[in-house]
Amino acid sequence: MSDLGKVDREFFDEYIYPYLGADRDDVSLSPQHGVDFGVVDVGEKAVAMATDPVFLMPSVGFEKAAWFAFHILMSDVAVSGIPPSHLSIDFNLPPEITDEQFETVWSTFDEEAKKLGVSVVTGHTARYAGCNYPMVGGATAISVGDHEDLVRPDGAQAGDRVVITKGPAVEATGLMATQFESLMEGDLPAETIDAAKDRFYDMSPVKDALTAAAAGPVTAMHDATECGVYGGLYEVARAGGVRLEIDRDEIPVLPGVLEACEFFGMDPWAAISEGTLVLTVAEDGVDDVLDALAAEDIPAADVGYATEGSSVFVDGDHVEHPGVDPFWGTFEEYMGKLESRD
Predict the structure, then answer these.
(1) Are 90 and 137 in contact (CB under 8 A)?
(2) What topology does CATH give the domain 161-341?
(3) CATH 3.90.650.10 residue window(s) in the chain
């Protein structure tokens, strides 16, 4: 198991995958490494569900932290193509959180849930000794819809086009610039720092996924979180059993990203990018998907295609899965710098 971040595929295959409880016929998509959600068939409906930590960073302000925490929880199930509908949530809160701070968190959750038509159906809330930010619980988001609307993570096929929204290191940039703005001052222009901070509210792929799925023949979608764009591409290719040929110059790059990543010493193509969507689309529908995303002001581009084979090739060169996301270690490093300076 890696020291920080998600377990790798080898750990998953050895310690987790063989032990999944009862073998039930109604589970039509079971856990796989790098796959965002699972599916249970209930009557005529597909029930997609995804579980994630409740990730709350008070240092960015409780309202912004809650917005991001909510959208993290929605993102993995949104890539099923079926709109999120239900939420089960457990808050294991640190003792120091005040009633007023929690009220801000929960009212933000309520506001964002209403926007998406999501109902909270069950949960648990408590303060406990030993609980610390940013991991303050866990939650399961659920989508209920028709089977024909489900976009499976293993659906990429030879001949599909590859579309990417927003580009690399969106989350790494937004979080690092917001958290460590004071450490960037003097080394980067103020407008560059502001641009990097502006990436914060790009850190949700929910609208991207639901817009794309409604617009055209999307065959697979994946949120480029752990290990970023390169990790996301690799996981789409592996799940679908295809080879992806990518032109890196076609991938959108948002303002402030490359400069921030250079400052913090992170590879932008391997850094966590919550908010970035990697999707494959049948060739005859790619223009419809791109037009729909553009209508919602979501940066996106056709960046390559799927073909027979396996793995990912960028500008003709084979790209392996990054393995370790640079964000986690870098974040710890700069927290130390910030604390020592204070």
Answers:
(1) yes
(2) Phosphoribosyl-aminoimidazole Synthetase; Chain A, domain 2 (3.90.650)
(3) 161-341
Residue 302's DSSP bridge partners are: 163
Taking only the tens place, the pLDDT of each residue in 76-103 is 999 999 999 999 999 999 999 999 999 9
In angstroms, the CA 205 to CA 222 distance is 9
Cis amide leading into 134 (omega within 30): yes
Closest of 308, 324, 242 to residue 278, by C-alpha: 242
CA 182 from centroid of its chain's CA atoms: 27
The CA distance from 176 to 188, in Å, is 14
If one counts every other C-beta atom within 10 angstroms of the C-beta of residue 295, the result is 10
User: What is the rounded distance in angstroms from the CA atom of residue 167 to the CA atom of residue 158?
Assistant: 23
To which residue do tokens 């990054």 refer?
Answer: 322
Confidence of residue 2 (pLDDT cuts 50, 70, 90): low
Q: What is the pLDDT of residues 108-137, one digit of tens each?
A: 999 999 999 999 999 999 999 999 999 999
For the chain, residues classed under CATH 3.30.1330.10 are 9-149
Region 9-149: CATH code: 3.30.1330.10
**Backbone torsions φ then ψ of 242, nearest 5 degrees:** -130, 170
Kindly give the pairing relationship between strand 45-55 and strand 135-146: antiparallel
Q: Does the pTM of the predicted model rise above 0.70?
A: yes
